[in-house]
Design a protein that fits this description.
The chain has 133 residues and is α/β, with parallel strands linked by helices. It is built from five helices and six strands, in the order H-E-H-E-H-E-E-E-H-E-H. Helix content is 41%, strand content 22%. Strand 2 (46-52), helix 3 and strand 3 (69-72) form a beta-alpha-beta unit. 26% of the residues are buried. A six-stranded mixed sheet has the order 3-2-1-4-5-6, sandwiched between helices.
Length: 133
């Protein structure tokens, strides 16, 4: 729950990924989260991100790499979901922003349920195929 412990948990989950980080979110503006994603990418962790189409996200895509970040025009991405190593699914209201992580009252749930993970992977795959490089 934010602002109680969500930054600590989000950073630990992202830093602890060993194989893959999958994110579908409205934006990723928090500098500490961006740094962790870059470090993980450079360490060989597969990063896949889908963001909606607006200027700041296009800049993030250019900076981070088109092979990692795709832009989806429709439907508009308003979800805040991440999947770590195909085993831990995080769903909630937490945006990947400093304000959301440190100031707002937000909540997320971590699911280990294989069915929920499979459903997310199906929707993510469909959206990734429809998204622009």
């Amino acid at each position: 729950m934010c602002p109680v412990n969500c930054r600590e948990i989000y950073e630990a989950l992202l830093s602890g990924a060993r194989e893959e980080i999958v994110i579908q979110a409205q934006y990723i503006s928090d500098e500490r989260i961006r740094k962790i994603l870059l470090e993980q990418r450079d360490a060989g962790v597969e990063i896949r991100v889908i963001l909606p189409d607006f200027g700041a996200n296009r800049a993030f895509q250019s900076f981070f790499g088109r092979e990692f970040v795709r832009i989806l025009g429709k439907p508009y991405v308003h979800s805040k979901v991440m999947l770590i190593d195909g085993r831990r699914l995080v769903i909630g209201s937490v945006n990947f922003s400093q304000n959301s992580l440190d100031k707002n009252r937000e909540v997320s749930v971590i699911s280990l349920d294989p069915w929920a993970i499979t459903i997310f992977e199906e929707f993510f795959g469909r959206d990734r195929r429809a998204a622009e490089f």
